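Need DUF2213 domain-containing protein's 3D structure for a figure. Predict it.
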Amino acid sequence: MVIRYDKAFIKDFKETDEGYLTITACPITRPGVFPYRRTDGGLSMEAKLPDELFSKTTVLSANAKPMTDDHPTEPVTAANYNKYSKGMTHNDAHVLDNKLLVSFTVTDAETIKKINDGKRELSIGFQADVSKETGVYNGMQYDSVQRNMQINHIAIVDEGRAGPEVAIRGDSVAFMIDTKDKQTGGNGMSKLIIDSKEFEVDSIVKAKFESLEAKLDAAEQRKANVEKLEGERDALKAQIDKLNKEIDEAKKKEVTADALDKRVQDRVDLINKAQKFLGDSVDFTGKSDREIKESVIAKTSPDFKGDGKSDDYIAAYFDSAVANVEKKGFTNPAAFNDAKDKDKEAAEEIEKQKNNRLNMNKKEDK
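Structure prediction for DUF2213 domain-containing protein:
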């Protein structure tokens, strides 16, 4: 039985009313072939096979286990629980998307502060029987298989603090360290292929190279994901901007009952004013407010030209003309002309009568 440490990462978490941090359904490990460095410097490619990792006993072993700040130097037990524990996993360990997940709550204030400051890497400490077996899993060769895995604790660690880093392929698990495996071997030369050329290098060098490759692949994938999200964000923003513009335009076009009543009344008032100048026989159907106003202005100012003038200018000119004419008692031109004719006739009649009286007086004098 050896002790292993697997790494993953804290992502989303929420703070409870008491100030605790709760992380829901966090992935802590997955199947795969992972390199482990032993204390003798050699590497062992060990397989976590689905049948072993997702066995009922292994999954249940993730429940109700202590959370620690870094890995302790010994397994966590009831005897040293108060010394090492900073929280506890929940009882919801389960398998989803080929990963083992479990929720947990961190209750220690100092550890919570470290998490908020960026210490968010997880490393599970577990015991396993390592069986010497060779095979291939997901295209990766292995020389050993981890069996009877039992999770002892989950540590919150800084990157690279648990020991020498050996990258692995796949999800966020970062590296594994074997602190007790004394088996020999693993120091032979490994084949490393670079640009289709094959080189023989020390297994540690190969592992380091693969570590850098894995980091590069992960970084490129993250970049692709970010670019995809940015594209989706920009597309959604464009849709939102379009919808907001359509809403604004709809609001501008919207005619409420009150607004409609006002528009009707304004039209009636305009026609009433215009009829005083243009006469009752004028048909206003199909004429715009501006056209009606220009017709009225033309009656009061025959030389007026409205071309190129704004609606506001026409409206102001119209109001001024109406006010000025109404102040002087002017009605419509037809009525005005009729009045002029009647006044002329009356004056002529008076003059005629005057002349008749003068003629009569002359006859009497004779």
